[in-house]
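thread from #wetlab-drylab

HS: before we spend reagent money on co-crystallization trials with NDP, can we at least see a predicted complex? here's what I'd submit
DV: go for it
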Amino acid sequence: MDKIKNYINGELVEPISKAYIDNYDPSRGKVYSLIPDSDERDVELAVTAAKAAFKMWSNTPKEQRARILQRIGYLIEDNLDKLALIESVDNGKPLHLAKLVDIPRAAANFNFYATGILHYAANTHSMEDTAINYTLRQPVGVAGCISPWNLPLYLFTWKIAPALASGCTVVAKPSEVTPMTAYLLSEICMTAGLPKGVLNIVHGLGPKVGNAIVSNKDVPLISFTGGTKTGAHIASIAAPMFKKLSLELGGKNPNIIFADCDYEKMLATTMHSSFSNQGQICLCGSRILVERSIYEKFKTDFVARTKQLTVGPPLNADTKVGAVVSKSHMEKILSYVELAQQEGGKVLCGGKRKIIDGDFKEGYYLEPTIIEGLPYNCRTNQEEIFGPVVTIMPFDKEEEVLMMANSTMYGLASTVWTQDITKAHRVANEIHAGIVWINCWLLRDLRTPFGGVKSSGVGREGGFEAFDFFTEPKNVCIKLK
Ligand code: NDP
């Protein structure tokens, strides 16, 4: 069975404990490889290597850093088929999605930040003939990067690429649930000639490895994407140590549909925003709010299309909905369907585990599920489920839908469907969320800042904001007389 290794100081190494954890293929519910069960000793080795490499890497001319990072981006592109296949097996997502979204985006992350750093400029401020102030942007040091399982390589590289481009060295931990593409990334970095110690990848459990990174005194910056509860725990350790912190957390995103929308475009996109990646994208619209005059039509059409979605093995070409990531996650999602029914909700379609005969019968498949009849403020409509489960609710007035949309503790993303341009901007202005999509979903220029408000996180990643995060401003003032 394949054994994943840690990537520390430029080498692939076993964990010090020599212990391993099972890695499951969610499409079969079977163990298919082993992950290092690393601990704080492995993290210490990684931090030591990253600290030792920092001076060299931060002083490497940015053109040279950019060339190496772009080489990594190109190698990801060259290995697209292999990486997509592995990500699909590791995560349960349809292969075509990994090929179309996850892996190209991982390459784009490296290419974008490699070239972006060449255009990142700092400010100068002149005090007429008295003094000149200028601001140096210096890399913070060893960056701790921790990412989740839903878009494994995409989110892992979204942190690592800007950190390395900024001149930081990195100790990173992918989710223990989906470690395989991060392992391949370490091989790619070796091929690309990334100097030793610049990037270190330590595999293992969150409470052991993640915690050790967050609490390490030589890691002054943490970039974390994951659940809100884990984010709060991380903040409680990092804040008293005055670490720089970026937290990208959960969401319960509203999808607001007005009667004057382009109906066909809205319906087609709503299928994606509801069920892509089995609903396991932090940006999925899980609460669908529909203007009452089109509610019944929308309900009929949406349920009919959802029933046509093929749930099946991720590698099958016709699969639209693959397996959810783990048994425990599947059970959590099913418990929310049960809760919804206890709260008075009616399951319009789905709601159950789907058993696929043969080799895949132990796989973690769920039928895409639509629930109606729930009040906006019940637990099902307030808590993140993170699976192929959406609720639909009618509304009458704009103020009412805004109140419903803004009623959760989250504020990550939102979608608005209307042909009325003034209403679109007015509603976008009133929604408490880091992102508002008007008549589209998941479309984004990488130059824009990314992140949520309220319990969806603090800080912004993406764009040149990422360089601001991974560097520290130092103001220098020179007196002229
Ligand atoms: P978790 O919070 O469970 O885990 C995220 C990462 O943190 C994993 O690598 C995990 O390791 C690690 N971790 C767990 N416990 C600790 C700890 N005590 N100290 C340090 N690290 C720890 O999230 P999930 O992996 O379940 O991901 C799903 C969540 O991520 C959802 O809430 C989703 O909304 C959110 N998300 C947010 C995004 C955003 O941009 N805002 C984007 C994508 C997802 P391990 O896997 O070993 O437990």
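DV: Residues 146-150, 155, 173, 175-177, 205-207, 210-211, 214, 225-227, 230, 233-234, 248-251, 282, 384, 386, 412, 452, 456-457 surround NDP (CB under 6 Å).
HS: ok that's useful, forwarding to the group
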